[in-house]
Design brief:
Blueprint (H helix, E strand, L loop, with lengths): L20 H5 L9 H16 L3 H8 L3 E10 L5 E12 L5 E8 L4 H17 L6 E7 L7 H14 L9 E5 L5 H13 L6 H6 L17 H16 L8 E5 L3 H12 L3 E7 L2 E4 L6 H11 L9 E2 L7 E2 L2 E2 L2 H6 L4 E4 L8 H6 L4 E3 L8 H9 L4 E2 L1 H4 L2 H15 L5 H26 L3 H20 L4
Parallel strand pairs: 3-4, 3-5, 6-7, 6-12, 12-13, 13-14
Antiparallel strand pairs: 1-2, 2-4, 7-8, 8-11, 9-10
The protein binds nicotinamide-adenine-dinucleotide.
The site of nicotinamide-adenine-dinucleotide (NAD) has 23 residues, from helix 9 and strand 7.
């Protein structure tokens, strides 16, 4: 029986977080800025709405395994540096643990736990036969040489060698890692054991280069999924489909692909922000040129001086530098936060002028910001739905590796669209059934499915 409370966030020790008795039962700290507490609170709200059994709620409120490893790496100048890595395995009731590996200076255990929980929910919402995990290494990959980066990736793989596996826990790229890093991990995994075939080794990670078993279409999959969900949701939410003006926060893998695909569908990307600056272009950026500029220069800064040749919507100068405030206040139809977690807090949520938000990043809004947007009537397509395209095509890659078969890019794109549309419709159905906003609806649909799985499986012994 559920022991959930009906108390609201006003009486909670953590602003924006509805304090559930499960927090006290499991001894959670009342830390307002803790992303993990916020994610669990969101999960518990959905759990209460669908009447999830208490025992499933407490299982999902903590990860199954939290692995932390320290490992030394020889740097180019000959000295050794000690790195800290994490792998959190949240839940594997639906299938092997699945989730990205992040290389970033701000990687912390609670953030990794939070992202691992989101993976469990995301896989369940999309009905993938996968569980949730996440990992990371606390480092700045941009400050490492290629050799150092490779040694970090390989030593970390050895540190967690017995905790990952092609049918047990399958990492993928995330912020600061890419297909090359996955290739080094697969190679290290295979080299570290005699009886692992190369086919098995390949399946231990997804997001690999196509040459060693990566899937066509994986690179753009998350951005593609953001666009697929947006297109499915706009008419359902009575929002206009044409001549979209779009703002993108973060022009990395997710943001740049979402921007490029939307541009090709006739949208104008008018404001862009990343760690290096903020740009505006009234006529819409030339998104291919902007992406090439980022690859060469590491960020969008400087693109304003570049004369583009007109492959996109806007031949002419790249754009103009504007303030952060202008970025948030520019009126657009669609706002896509696709950088890092919790970048949109209450002040930003008050400033944003848009008709809909599509979360490309994981957890880009704080719970309080979410409440502000709900009050302002701005719908939010939540991360667990909008950015599920990455894990969906990761699943396709894993299936292709398992069957020694390679799908065409057209087939991957069509299948991805089918999965994203189904997940979007499931979310809309839950919104209607429970009378809740989209984020809660997505959690409800996912948790309903997990609840059904636990009902059938039971809890050992
Ligand atoms: P990325 O490293 O390719 O890009 C990150 C972007 O964020 C860069 O443009 C960077 O400049 C920007 N950024 C970093 N710090 C910033 C700051 N302080 N202010 C403004 N911009 C900043 O990462 P990515 O793979 O595109 O991932 C972005 C988000 O999407 C993350 O939350 C990630 O977990 C999530 N995500 C990624 C995938 C995937 O397949 N890559 C899948 C699902 C979710």
């Amino acid at each position: 029986m559920s022991t959930a409370t009906t108390s609201q966030s006003a009486s909670s020790p953590v602003p924006g977080v509805r304090w559930d008795p499960v927090f006290d039962e499991l001894g959670f700290p009342d830390d307002p800025s803790n992303l993990y507490t916020q994610t669990v609170a969101t999960m518990l709200e959905g759990a209460e709405t669908v009447g999830l059994q208490h025992r499933v709620k407490i299982i999902l409120a903590q990860p199954k395994n939290e692995i932390m490893a320290h490992f030394p790496v020889r740097m180019d100048d000959g000295h050794h540096r000690l790195f800290k890595g994490y792998r959190v395995q949240h839940n594997n009731a639906l299938g092997p643990y699945k989730g990205g590996l992040r290389f970033h200076p701000n990687v912390h255990l609670d953030d990794v736990k939070s992202l691992a929980l989101m993976m469990t929910i995301k896989c369940s919402l999309v009905r993938l036969p996968l569980g949730g995990g996440k990992g990371g290494v606390k480092c700045d990959p941009h400050a490492l040489s290629e050799g150092e980066l490779q040694r970090v990736a390989r030593r970390f793989t050895v540190a967690i060698l017995n905790d990952i596996g092609p049918d047990y826990d399958i990492p993928a790229p995330d912020v600061g890692t890419n297909a090359q890093v996955m290739a080094w991990i697969a190679d290290t995994y295979q080299m570290s054991s005699n009886n692992r075939t190369s086919t098995d080794a390949m399946r231990v990670v997804t997001g690999k280069p196509v040459e060693i078993g990566g899937s066509l279409g994986r690179n753009k999959a998350t951005g593609q999924g953001v666009v697929d969900t947006l297109i499915e949701m706009l008419p359902a939410l009575d929002l206009p489909m044409n001549d979209l003006r779009v703002s993108v926060q973060g022009w990395g893998n997710v943001g740049s692909w979402a921007g490029r695909i939307l541009e090709k569908k006739g949208a104008k990307i008018v404001t862009v922000m990343d760690h290096s600056g903020v740009l505006y272009n009234e006529n819409g950026f030339d998104c291919d040129a902007l992406t090439e500029h980022c690859m060469e220069h590491g960020g969008i800064a400087g693109f304003e001086k570049q004369r583009t040749t007109g492959t996109g919507n806007n031949p002419g100068l790249g754009g103009e530098v504007v303030s952060l405030e202008d970025f948030y206040k520019t009126p657009v139809d669609v706002f896509i936060p696709a950088a890092l977690e919790q970048m949109v807090k209450v002040p930003e949520a008050e400033m944003i002028q848009c008709k809909i938000i599509v979360e490309g990043a994981n957890g880009p809004l704080t719970n309080e910001a979410d409440e502000v947007l709900e009050r302002r009537g701005i719908p939010v397509i939540p991360d667990i739905l909008a950015n599920a395209g990455g894990v969906t095509v990761s699943h396709f890659e894993w299936v292709q590796n398992k069957t020694n078969h390679m799908w065409t890019e057209e087939f991957v794109d069509a299948e991805l669209n089918r999965y994203m549309v189904m997940a979007a419709r499931r979310t809309l159905l839950a919104k209607q059934k429970f009378g809740v906003p989209l984020r809660k609806a997505a959690y409800c649909s996912a948790l309903d499915h997990i609840g059904d799985v636990y009902k059938v499986r039971g809890i050992f012994p």
